[in-house]
Hints:
By secondary structure, the protein is α+β, with helices and mostly antiparallel strands. The chain has 13 helices and 22 strands.
Amino acid sequence: MVKELQLRIQLKEEKITDILLKKAAHHLSIDPKTVSGVKILRKSIDARKPQIYFNYKVAVYIDEPLPENSAYQFEYKDVSNAKEIHIVGFGPAGMYAALRCLELGYKPIVLERGKNVQDRRRDLRAINQEHFVNEDSNYCFGEGGAGTYSDGKLYTRSLKRGDVRKIFENLVFHGATEQILIDAHPHIGTNKLPKIIQNIRETILKHGGEIHFESRVTDFVIKNNKLQAIQLLNGTEMTVNAVVLATGHSARDIYELLHKKEIALKAKSFAMGVRVEHPQHIIDSIQYHCSGKRDELLPAAAYSLVQQVKGRGVYSFCMCPGGFIVPAATANGEVVVNGMSPSRRNNLYANSGIVVEINVDKDLPKYEKYGVLKGLQYQKDLERLAFTSGGRTQTAPAQRLTDFVEGNLSTDLNTTSYQPGLKSAPLHSLLPKLIGGRLRKGFEAFGQKMHGYYTSEANIVGVESRTSSPVNIPRKDNLEHPEIEGLFPCGEGGGYAGGIISAAMDGERCAEAAIENL
């Protein structure tokens, strides 16, 4: 017999399984000797009051053994001679589309504009140290996509889009820690993700799939509204049966190519703002009601904030406790910042995007001349502004948080995790009022919600502009583009996902749809 329970444990540690076993037996009023074992299903922290608790959801096994193996088994077929599905992009959506092809007996042929996960490192070093952006290999492009070197947070609200548990179990199958199966806000860490992604690549190749790196798609050959072939930058033309388009939210050349070919696109609302960076101990002291160092049993504290300001949401995005700010530009002449955390989340700083909702139908009247690409052009302009005000390198414009809100130029800045460096700039006047004015009000409100958050010890860094795609590539109920037969827009680049897990699930669905269409 198996029973599920919710249990609370104060912040003190013995052998946790022993504590849970005793509590479960007491809760069920049974002899502890009849409990074969306890399996943790979910773990979270309740730090709303000074007394901190660990919350556990557990399965209690009574008079029957704990299962030794996962209920999920991954059986991949040899597809060396099978019918082909072409997949453009090898981020989460592209990877899971390819894995699903293997399960269903079809051969994935993956085309990735960037380099493999190991070779990407040299190009990331060039951004950080030499301020040079390789437009095909950077923090956004390359094996594993933007998530590889930008944290690996796995939290998703997309519970109705597919089998979330399967995606998590598959990550464990490819080398992730089983801890991601139980944490309320699971996270792998930028130092651990590359090996997992390499393992996924090896699975695809072992079973007969193909992965071509440094293979940028530059054109689509279409006849009678049917996709016939794709062309690569090196001149190669590949005949296709179906294409899963999983290029990510930063592949602007793909949007521009589709627009030029008069293939239907839609403008989509998105969000933009800044990164804010605090010393981690400040966030710990606020969230854990402590002064000085947090208890060693507690992870670096995170936060989630939202405030309505003048009819638009101002909210935290991609919060990285114990993390780093990284340069996420995909072209020279622009500055974009993002955040990441290593698996241990043991860096001295906490950073988060703080962004403002942009209603693409109401907020950008001066950009109407760009049509469906108006949000994309707005992004570009703000990133060029950040590049100019930062000193025309990957040095980012920054300001002390209190100076930004109060409208003062910072005479000096706090230390930072952002490796290319910071330059003091009057972001309070440089940012468009649509964004800057709401951010200033939002930060004031956040200071009321988290006492100590509003401090001169925090920097804001510009700009956080790639939260999601400003363009939607439409698709029908069968996930195919409404005008182009054989084209299946997918993941964040299509406007159908907002993170690693939701993109992975969408990749699986698009692979299934492409195969069913054949």
